[in-house]
Structure formats: structure tokens, C-alpha cells
Amino acid sequence: MSESLLRVQNVSKRFGNFVALSDISLDIAAGERIGIIGPNGSGKTTLINCIAGRLRPETGQIVFGGEDVTRLAPHQRARRGLARTFQIPQPFHGMTVIENLYVPLEYGSRQSAPRNEQSDEPLRDAAMRILVSLGLGAKADDGCRALSQIELRKLELARALAVNPRLLVSDEAMAGLSSDEVDEVLEILFALAARGITVIMIEHIMRAIMRFSERVLCIVSGKLIASGAPADIVQHPEVQRAYIGD
Ligand SMILES: Nc1ncnc2c1ncn2[C@@H]1O[C@H](COP(=O)(O)OP(=O)(O)O)[C@@H](O)[C@H]1O
Ligand SMILES: [Mg+2]
Predict the structure, then answer these.
(1) Is the CB of 92 under 6 A from ligand 1?
(2) Superfamily of domain 4-244
(3) Residue-wise pLDDT tens digits, 136-174
(4) Which of 36, 98, 99, 202 is the most exposed place for a label (fewest CB within 10 A)?
């Protein structure tokens, strides 16, 4: 196994008396394609919020690229190459599609010096390159309100890619899409993985999870109950119980 990129150690998160995450530990190697499954409300998004810095866990550590980032703000983690999409797309509504990429490109991007000192590429060209790679080039100057569901999902991915990530966490980017659109997003995630980006895909669509993931993690009621090859995970008794009920 190659070196660890993300290590979650004994992370717990409560909301009041409700335990949303209970002592979660996991290790993800650089370059892995990971799927995360689990019933609604099992804590998947909460885990991503703890990893990305939107939530602070009560216990445990998040180690990214060998560095303890547990106390860092989301933008500080983004600058280290940790990017995520939101389950409910969160574009800057008052801006055009391409303008949505300027903030992450300028302020979130993974490099030590401000972007323009390191790169000759003008901001608009850098943003356009990302949009074109996702098939959004023709929408660059449109407002976000005019976007379809899949275009909004792609814009979420584009904004995440603008930080030049080492790790991309996609939180249900396929929800509500048609079968062909699911395949389109799947191809995008495969292409990013082929570029060397470690990808964590949270999804309910099992066909996509089975095709994409080298390893699947299953979270039920805030606990990591299984981790393994996709074919083994679907056979796992606890996973079956969580989905089918007993
Ligand atoms: N900010 C919050 N305040 C209170 N409860 C929350 C908050 N965020 C999530 N929860 C609760 O934590 C549980 C896990 O939610 P979530 O992580 O969104 O699940 P999933 O993404 O697996 O569907 C749910 O019961 C949800 O209602
Ligand atoms: Mg969720």
C-alpha cells in the first residue's frame, strides 16, 4: 500500500446528546478510489464536515498528508489540497459560473505563494480550463440560477478542482441525476482519479459505488461497520442488515 494521505483517528462528533459519529478511524492511501455508503442520517456528511473542517470533532484527530489538521479552518485545509463538494450545491448565486471559480483559484489554491506569482496563466484561463474539462465551457458566462441539476453538480466539482486538490470528497454528486448523467459524473471522477487525485465518493447509487470504488466503507449510526472490496462489502452481513433490516 502506498503512503497514507488521510488518516482519521478515533473521531467522535455529537450534536447535543445525539452521537453522530462514534470513534471513527480510517486510513486512505494516496491514489485510492474510495466509496462511502450508509443509510440516510448515518453520519457520512458529518464525517466529511469533520475531515474538511466545517465541524470540529469532540475527540480524535484528522491527519492529512502527514500533518495534523484537526485545528485548521476549512480554507487552510483546502490550501493543503483537501477539497469537497456539498450535497446541496452551494454556488455564489450572484456570480456567473466562471466567477464562482475565482475565489477558490485565488485564495484556496494549493501552493505556497499567491497564484499569480507562481503561474503565468491568467485567472480566467485557469478557470476556463477547469470548466471545459467538465463540459461546462459554454456556460462560463451564464448566471448560476440558469443551471440544470447536473450543471450545478459539475460546478460544485469545478469549484473543488479549483483548489488543485490532492483529495476530492464528492458528497452525493449523483443524487437526482438520470442514469446517463450518473455515468457522466462517474467518468469525471474516474478522469480525476487517473490524474492522481485521491477520490472519496459518497453515494447511494450502488451501481456507481460498485464500478468506481477500489474499497468501500460502510457507516451505520455513526459507526464504521465495514471496509473492504465492493464485492465483499455487499455480502457483508452487517451491511445487508443495515440496508434490508432484520
Ligand atoms: N448541524 C447539525 N445539528 C444537529 N444534528 C445534525 C447536524 N448535522 C447532522 N445532524 C444529524 O446527524 C445525523 C447524521 O447526519 P448526516 O451526517 O447528514 O448523515 P448522512 O450524510 O449519512 O445522511 C442525522 O441524524 C442528522 O440529523
Ligand atoms: Mg449526507
Answers:
(1) no
(2) P-loop containing nucleotide triphosphate hydrolases (3.40.50.300)
(3) 999 999 999 989 999 999 999 999 999 999 999 999 999
(4) 99
